[in-house]
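> forwarded from #structure-qc
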């Protein structure tokens, strides 16, 4: 089972998710990463589930058209839509704003 770390408001929340688990679906049924993950539509439309991938991005598939349309240049900064991903490898994500440079 992949290890998942969600950094929210500066605190790290750690747990496991089933192989090929979708984080928004899990949060919807109140399983980890609930309540640490923000989401709404679950369909790639609202952008609420956008999260910066802090580690593990190399294991994720290429962004789909919904991610490209919704995230635009944020894709290059490592943001992905969690409702569009099925986790198979360890992942660390954060929905906190990017630190100022
Ligand atoms: S929950 Fe709306 S885009 Fe992912």
């Amino acid at each position: 089972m992949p290890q998942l770390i969600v950094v929210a408001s500066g605190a790290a929340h750690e747990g496991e998710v089933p192989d090929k688990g979708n984080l928004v679906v899990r949060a919807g049924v109140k399983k980890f990463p609930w309540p640490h993950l923000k989401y709404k539509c679950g369909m790639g439309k609202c952008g609420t589930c956008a999260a910066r991938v802090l580690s593990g991005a190399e294991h994720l598939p290429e962004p789909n058209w919904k991610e490209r349309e919704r995230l635009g240049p944020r894709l290059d900064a490592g943001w992905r839509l969690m409702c569009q991903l099925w986790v198979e490898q360890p992942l660390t994500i954060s929905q906190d704003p990017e630190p100022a440079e």
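QC bot note: The domain at 3-94 is CATH 3.10.20.30 (Ubiquitin-like (UB roll)). The CA atoms of residues 67 and 81 lie 6 Å apart.
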